Amino acid sequence: MDTVIVLFNRDLRVHDHPALATACADARRVAPLFVVDPVLALGRRTGFLADCLADLRESLRGRGGDLLIRWGDPVAETLRLAGELSAQAVYTGEDVSAFARRRERRLAEECGRHRMGFRTFPGVTVVPPGALRPSGGGDHYRVFTPYWRAWNGWRRREVLDAPDVVPVPPQMEAGPLPVPGRLAPRLFRGGETVARERMARWLKRSVAGYADGHDDLAGNRTSRLSPYLRFGCLSPLELASLSGGGGHRGGDGGGGDDYVRQLCWRDFFHQVTSAFPRISRDDYRPRGQEWHDDGDAAQAWKEGRTGVPIVDAGMRQLLTEGWMHNRARMIAASFLVRRLRVDWRVGAAHFFELLLDGDVPNNYGNWQWVAGTGNDTRPNRVVNPVRQARRFDPHGEYIRRYLPELEAVPTRTLHEPWRLPAGIGGYPPPLVSVG
Ligand code: FAD
Q: Does the pTM of the predicted model rise above 0.85?
C-alpha cells in the first residue's frame, strides 16, 4: 500500500502499538493522526493530554515522522485527511465505551463508502475484551475470580518494539496542540517518555513491596501509573509482562502477582463494558434501590466537607491532585452510596470529571461494584469508614496531609469523628452517624 492513516485515540505511545507497527510494515507512507474532538469534555485531563500529544509528536519526529493534529469530528477529519493523501486505509486501536464504539462503527462505514480499508487493532488491554468466554455460557465474565483464572491461561501476543522509522507523507501541516486549562493539576506530567521512566522506576524499586503496601493510604506505595494507562502512554500488556507476576508465568509469589491482578481488574471492567456499554447510565444488576435526592449532602461530599475526616481527605486529594488512592476511592464512594444514600451516578460523574485516570470502564465499573449494582458477589458490602481509617491510616498521616485544619487533632479523634470538637478550624460536624 502507498499510504495508511493511523488514527490514535487513547493509545498515545510508539512502543507496543499494533496499529502503528502494522502500518509501518504494510505501507510506504504512514500518517499518524490525532483528532481533538470538542465533544469530549476532557476538563482537567486536557493538560495531561496536551503533554501526551507533544511527547508523541517528538517521538514520531525522532523517527522521521510526525503527529498530525486536527480539530473536529474524528470521522470527518480522518476522511478529509484520507482524501488529501489519497490514503488506502485507516488503522486504529479498538476501544470499548459506547462513545468509542459508535465512532468506530461510523468510521468503518465511511471508509467502506469511500472504498478504503479499515482495520482495528488490540492494545487497550492485556487480553482483548471478548476474547475470553465463560465455559457455562454468556458473552462475558460477570465475576472476577473465574475471569482471573482464564486470563492467566490466555496466550498473550508478543510485545512489539517501537518502529525505527515512521515514513510520514511529505509537507503535511502538523496542526496545533491543545492548550491546558488554568485549573489543571500538574502533579503528573503526561506522555510516554515520562510514563516509561516511571514504569522502569516502579518495576525496579517498588513493585516487590506492592502486596504489603498497596493499602497504606499515607505511604504512596502504589504505582500511580493509572493516568498513563488511561491515555495509553503505556501498554498494559508490556507492563503486565515486565511485572513478572501472575499465574501466567507460574507467579513470583511477590508484589508482582498482586500487581498483575490489579491489571486484570482493569481488563475485567473493559470486558464488562464491552458487553454492557450502558454501564455509565444503567444499573448492571438492577436491585430496585431508592436513592435520596440530597443535593446539599452530595455537594458537601464533593467539597470534602462531610465531617468524616477519612472521607474528606480522599475527596480533597481528588480536588487538589486529580488522583486518589484506591482505598480512599472505595471509602468515599461507599460513604456516598451507603451512608448518604445518594445515587452512584452522582458520585461517578464527579469522579469522572476530576480524575486524570477517569475512564468509562474502570470508573463506572468500580462505582457500580461499590453500589452493589455491579459485579460484586456480595452486593450488600458496607465499608466502615471508622474501621478503615484505623486500619489503613493508623497514624492519621493521610488525613492530616489533606485536612490541614485538623493538624493538631489527636489521631484517635481523627478516626472517631463524633469526638471532634465542634467547629475546629471551621471543620463541619459529621453529616451522618458513622459509629
Ligand atoms: P495500582 O494499585 O498501582 O494498580 C495498577 C493498575 O491496575 C492501575 O493503574 C489500574 O490501571 C489498575 N487497577 C488497580 N485497581 C483497579 C481497580 N479496582 N479497577 C480497575 N483497575 C484497577 N481506575 C482508573 O484507572 N480509572 C478510574 O476512573 C477509576 N475509578 C475508580 C472509581 C472508584 C469508586 C474506585 C473504587 C476505583 C476506581 N479506579 C479507577 C480503580 C483504582 O482506584 C485506580 O486504578 C488506582 O487507584 C490507580 O492508582 P495506581 O495506578 O497507583 O494503581
A: yes
